[in-house]
Amino acid sequence: MKTIVEAKRIKKAFGKKGNIYTALNGIDLSIREGEFVGIMGPSGAGKSTLLNVIATIDDPSSGEITIDGVNILSMNEEQLSSFRREKLGFIFQDYNLLDSLTLKENILLPLALAKVPIPELEERVQEVADKFGIGPILDKYPYHVSGGQKQRTAAARAIVSKPSLLLADEPTGALDSKSATDLLESLKGLSEQDKATILLVTHDAFAASYCNRILFIKDGEMFTELVKGTSSRKEFFNKVLDVLSTLGGGTIDTI
Known about the structure:
This protein is α/β, with parallel strands linked by helices. It is 37% helix and 27% strand. It has helices at residues 47-54, 77-87, 103-113, 118-131, 147-159, 177-194, 205-208, 233-247, and strands spanning 3-16, 19-32, 36-40, 62-67, 70-71, 88-92, 165-169, 198-201, 213-218, 221-227. It is globular.
């Protein structure tokens, strides 16, 4: 199976000589096409720093990162901007929707920027809206819909351009349990049916239980890895809790 992300010996340090904080210290990770991978760890472990480095939002201090066969550390800012638009999708905790646009207009924005022909644009927007169960409300504005519907719109916008990698940073953090479950089920479906490759940063064991594999980070280093395999989601959830109790950090919800 094709490897989408290959990161080797990733280090990230902040500060100046004599007062340096090492956020990431020699992280290696590999993600294959269609995998739904979680990153967990205590606050300050380096989860978001790792996501930002892979997302090309921040540069590592050293190491190598290849996404979909491209060395992202060799590109200039203009090339990176184009790469983000074409290859990466983002889902954030606070939605980042434009209130002046309808849900449909928010979703189609990446396609419009890429000058996708209108018939194809319409078809792709409807397709992703149906996947996330928001087809009937596309003409509404963000301030007219629930938090869960906003987040599913944000997720639809993130995948409408068919990115090589979907990056999700605490996407269920502001959602109630039903909305969170709806979003996670949709992401799981994208991974299984459409071979979408997803990297999810979360502190929530319930959200993590939807992943195929979870990487646990502590003090900027890889602590351990859990693979779901043939486990049921409930069994996997309990394994996640076991690791979190050893590691420290994480939210324990019921399943």
